[in-house]
Amino acid sequence: MTDEVQLDTSFPKYVFIDGIPVVGKDKYLKLQKVLESFFKKNSGDFQNLVVPESAEGGTKGICFIEYHTKEDAEAAAAKLAGAKLDSQHILKVNMYDDIKRVRDVPDTYEEPVVQPYSSRENLQSWLLDDRELDQYVMRYGEMTEVAWNTLKEGEDPESVCKRQAWSDVYVQWSPKGSYLLTIHVKGGVALWGGPNWNKFARFVHPGVKLVEFSPCERYLTTASPQFQENDNPKDPQCIIVWDIRSGKKLRGFAAGANFSWPCFKWSHDGNYIARTIENAVSVFCVPSMDLLDKKSIKAPGVKEISWSPTDLMLSYFLPAQDNKSPTVQIIEIPSKKEKRTKTLFDATECKLNWHPNGTYLCLKIDRVKKKTTVQGFEIFRIREKDIPVELLEVKEAVHSFSWEPHGNRFAMVSGEQPRFDISFYAVEKNIVLLKTLEKRNTNALFWSPQGKNIVLAGTTSGLLEFFNADNMESMGTAEHYNVAAHEWDPTGRYFTTVVSAWRSNIENGYRLFNFQGKELRNALKDKFYQLLWRPRPPTPLSEEKLKQLKGSLDTLSKKYKEADQQKKREEREKRKQKRINIRHEFEDYIRGRREEYNKVLQEYTRETLDGEGEGEDEKAVYYVETTVEEVQQVQELLLEDN
């Protein structure tokens, strides 16, 4: 007996639409043409459109659309949901199979099975450490290791987790330190975390090499260059946006001709993602991934876009085009309202540098005057009324610019090789030059996350200068050649430099300095690739609470100094006890060996004295008595003549 044939009664490629106009027989064909045009424009190509007729030959207010694939149908349903055919007709859209599923719900209620609750591991567990230490991850050889920043003299850092072949390419922390991301070229990426370093999520994306988290850690963007040239336009695989919590793929994008990373820019809250296309800026709402207002923002020739780190404001640069001067625009999202527009006469290039607190936007502008490129800066005061702009002209070429994380200062590197000038400025009523360090062999700037301190680094010279920007004085210098990466720890107390095997095969490893430039560790490891400090999430304390804590800093510092002194005493006591134990072990060993020697000597002597036999076999013992004279003291006495 053969099994009964099961017919497939699903219609995964069909979309049901309610809300179209109800018209008579005379307008039926005209409406059908209007619907075909509207749906092709708003949802893409489809196979068939069915508009059911009423008994009189008119419409019933509903229609069905058949698409080429299930994926096309789902994408079209998402796009058409809530679309306006006109001011009086708003479309209600459902997948046809969803209607069947709802229709087939049984009349009798069945109580759902309650799944047992399983709690997730604490993703911020490392912040509960009593020692208040930070962590960092290292990659060397085939090993990936997470370690505490312990600074015990003569000891390696305390390992937290060490695994072989944990990642194929590199590792990356999420912005708040909750996840460690590993890359697996054939399988995609994985996220790890918690006290046991379990896998929290996996995202399948063959050939993936580039990744970026949203600032809120809710979403992830991955890119696989192998799809760049031969991508599927209906289902792009080159760039994918993921929902981290659900593991769901939100949308795929083609790379485009001028692919560069990161090609998408996230808003500070993770609710929007933007990219540049030809003559426009596309802003997508997350997680729906719908284009904001269903259309891109016109931006002829747009080259660069940048979000405010703290507000829903987007800035972008428009170069000169069609006799129009180059401009910079700042708009609000989602309203797209212009906050500020500034014309940049004669500008050929413009770099956008937001202050980490969102208080300022600095434009680094290249202008051509008399066949010579001249550089200047324009700083927008974002928080002030009408957003006024301050101008700063620089006579020499500028190689690096960096805002102080907290405050109103910035630093820049200018001049020509091999000696550069390091200048410090403050944005007050005007832009004020604070100090210029002339003829320095450094060309890179690394501000401490807490501000105040900055490292002036020479990427070719290997020189490191630890500088206090409050007192405008150098605290210390060091050298480390062939450095590929410089990074502060989250507290601003420690600074690391890395010589990576990706760049050089000589003296791979890292060095750890304190904020004053004192070297605390010099670790050489064969095939050392990476060292990344684990980020900390933003403090939940308010500004008032932080001010209160700063006011009681003297009292708190005494407490911590006492704790540090106690810890040092305990460490000294441990070292002392360790030396005592080693000495006792050595003395016990010597005592045991001496007893063993004396026992053997006694046995040998007894056997010799009690030995039997004459002649050649007779054993003799000879005792030699030796008299040794030793001068103990010599005195000279002067005898007087009577």
From TrEMBL:
Gene Ontology annotations of biological process type: formation of cytoplasmic translation initiation complex
Function of the protein: RNA-binding component of the eukaryotic translation initiation factor 3 (eIF-3) complex, which is involved in protein synthesis of a specialized repertoire of mRNAs and, together with other initiation factors, stimulates binding of mRNA and methionyl-tRNAi to the 40S ribosome. The eIF-3 complex specifically targets and initiates translation of a subset of mRNAs involved in cell proliferation.
Name of protein: Eukaryotic translation initiation factor 3 subunit B
Source organism of the structure: Planoprotostelium fungivorum
Keywords assigned: Coiled coil, Cytoplasm, Initiation factor, Protein biosynthesis, RNA-binding
Listed GO CC annotations: eukaryotic 43S preinitiation complex; eukaryotic 48S preinitiation complex; eukaryotic translation initiation factor 3 complex
Coiled-coil segments: 546-580
PROSITE patterns, sorted: RRM
Residue intervals of the RRM domain: 13-98
Lineage: Eukaryota, Amoebozoa, Evosea, Variosea, Cavosteliida
Annotated compartments: Cytoplasm
